[in-house]
C-alpha cells in the first residue's frame, strides 16, 4: 500500500542490540482498517518490530510515523489512539479486574463505561472474575483481561504481540472474530502470532521475519505456503 494512505509507516527501520541485528532495515505501512500479521520463529524480531511500532523503543536506523507525525509513546495523540497488548503485565496487583477496566475507562474518557465493561467482561468470559485481583487469575484469564483493556478504550491502531498465547481454542476463536471486527470498524491492526490459523483467518496481509529480515510478504496464504510445514513457526 502507499505510504501516503498509511496510518502507521515504518521506513528503513532497523534495530541492533550491540552486535546483534534484531531487525534488519525494512519498510512497512498499515492503512486504517487493514489487518497485518507478523510471522516468524522465536527470536526473528516480531516483538522488536512491535515495540518500535508503538514508540516504546526507538529504531537504530529509519523512521516511524503515526498519522504522518513521528511516533512517540509520550505523544498525547499516540496515547489516545494507539492500543497495545504486549508481553508486559501492566496491572496493579491490588485492583480487581473490574477496577482495572474502570481505570482504563477514566483514563480514556470512555462513554458509558459500565455498559462497555459489562459487555467486555461477558465477551471475554470474565464476568465471574470481575471482582478478582490479577494474582488469582489463570494465565488465560489474565490475557483476556489485557485484551479487554485494549478493546474498551478508543483506538485507531491496535498492536498485539502474540495475543493468542495462553488462550484456549474457544477463546482463540473469539480472538479471531475480535481482530476481524477491529478491521471492519476501521482500526489498523498489526499482530505478531505463532498461530497460522489466526493469520490465515484474520489478516489481509502477512509478513514473515527470519533472523530480523523480511523473508516474505503477501497474503497469509502466500506467506504461509513459503513455510516448511514441519517448522515451528
Ligand atoms: N533488549 C534486548 N537486548 C538484547 N537483545 C535483544 C533485546 N530484545 C530483543 N533482543 C534480541 O533480538 C532478537 C529478536 O527478538 P524478538 O523478541 O523481537 O523476537 P520475537 O520474534 O518476538 O520472538 P518470540 O517469538 O520468541 O517472541 C532476539 O535474538 C533477541 O534475543
UniProtKB/TrEMBL annotation:
Domain ABC transporter residues, every copy: 8-233
GO molecular function, one term: ATP binding
Pfam families xref list: ABC_tran
Keywords per UniProt: ATP-binding, Nucleotide-binding, Transport
UniProt name for this protein: ABC transporter ATP-binding protein
Phylogenetic classification of the source organism: Bacteria, Bacillati, Actinomycetota, Actinomycetes, Kitasatosporales
Amino acid at each position: 500500500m502507499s505510504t501516503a494512505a498509511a496510518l502507521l509507516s515504518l521506513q528503513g527501520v532497523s534495530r541492533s542490540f550491540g552486535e546483534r541485528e534484531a531487525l534488519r532495515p525494512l519498510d512497512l505501512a498499515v492503512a486504517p482498517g487493514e489487518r497485518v500479521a507478523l510471522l516468524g520463529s522465536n527470536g526473528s524480531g516480531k516483538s522488536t518490530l512491535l515495540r518500535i511500532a508503538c514508540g516504546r523503543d526507538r529504531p537504530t536506523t529509519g523512521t516511524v510515523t503515526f498519522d504522518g507525525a513521528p511516533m512517540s509513546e509520550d505523544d498525547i495523540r499516540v496515547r489516545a489512539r494507539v492500543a497495545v497488548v504486549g508481553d508486559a503485565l501492566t496491572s496493579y496487583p491490588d485492583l480487581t479486574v473490574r477496577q482495572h477496566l474502570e481505570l482504563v475507562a477514566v483514563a480514556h474518557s470512555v462513554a458509558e463505561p459500565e455498559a462497555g465493561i459489562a459487555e467486555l467482561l461477558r465477551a471475554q468470559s470474565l464476568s465471574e472474575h470481575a471482582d478478582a485481583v490479577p494474582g488469582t487469575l489463570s494465565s488465560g484469564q489474565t490475557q483476556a483481561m489485557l485484551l479487554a483493556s485494549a478493546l474498551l478504550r478508543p483506538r485507531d491502531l491496535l498492536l498485539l504481540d502474540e495475543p493468542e498465547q495462553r488462550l484456549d481454542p474457544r477463546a482463540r476463536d473469539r480472538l479471531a472474530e475480535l481482530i476481524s471486527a477491529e478491521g471492519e470498524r476501521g482500526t489498523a491492526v498489526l499482530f505478531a502470532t505463532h498461530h497460522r490459523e489466526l493469520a490465515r483467518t484474520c489478516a489481509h496481509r502477512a509478513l514473515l521475519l527470519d533472523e530480523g529480515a523480511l523473508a516474505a510478504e503477501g497474503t497469509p496464504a502466500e506467506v504461509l505456503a513459503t513455510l516448511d510445514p514441519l517448522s515451528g513457526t
